[in-house]
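From the methods appendix. Each design record in this collection lists the tokenized structure first, followed by the designed amino acid sequence. Records were kept in a plain field format so they could be parsed without special tools. The example shown here is representative of the layout used throughout.

RECORD:
FOLD TOKENS (139 positions):
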């Protein structure tokens, strides 16, 4: 869909450029200058309005990015509690004092876990067993 939008936008810009060139040739440069000024102001206003719209649609200033890349990778925008990744890994009960799994954390943050059995959390990481044969249990 993005490709279609870009093609339509390119076609509209090409037609507008040709129309301005035609005004310069058949009318005069002063009229073309005024038309280009008004068109530039309209495009600037449209760009500002679209920026505001997509910022609101995205969720405002939250800026939360959570990404896990790799076999058995875990990334949590909140707390990561009681995860077991890897062959024969076991997580037997998270500690009683641990925060609730998935609890969102305020503010802006980017969380990224990359690599086999990696773990990243914006909040607390408690009782997690990562890697082959690993075990995490309550103490």
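DESIGN:
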């Amino acid at each position: 869909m993005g490709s279609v939008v870009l093609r339509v936008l390119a076609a509209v810009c090409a037609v507008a450029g040709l129309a301005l060139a035609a005004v310069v040739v058949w009318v005069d440069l002063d009229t073309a200058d005024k038309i280009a000024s008004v068109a530039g102001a309209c495009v600037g206003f449209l760009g500002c309005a679209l920026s505001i719209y997509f910022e609101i649609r995205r969720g405002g200033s939250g800026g939360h990015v959570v990404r896990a890349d790799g076999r058995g990778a875990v990334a949590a925008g909140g707390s990561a509690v009681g995860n077991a990744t890897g062959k024969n890994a076991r997580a037997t009960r998270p500690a009683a004092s641990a925060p609730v799994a998935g609890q969102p954390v305020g503010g802006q943050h980017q969380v990224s876990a990359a690599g086999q059995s990696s773990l990243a959390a914006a909040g607390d990481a408690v009782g997690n067993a990562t890697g082959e044969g690993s075990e995490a249990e309550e103490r």
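APPENDIX NOTE: DSSP finds two helices and ten strands in the chain.
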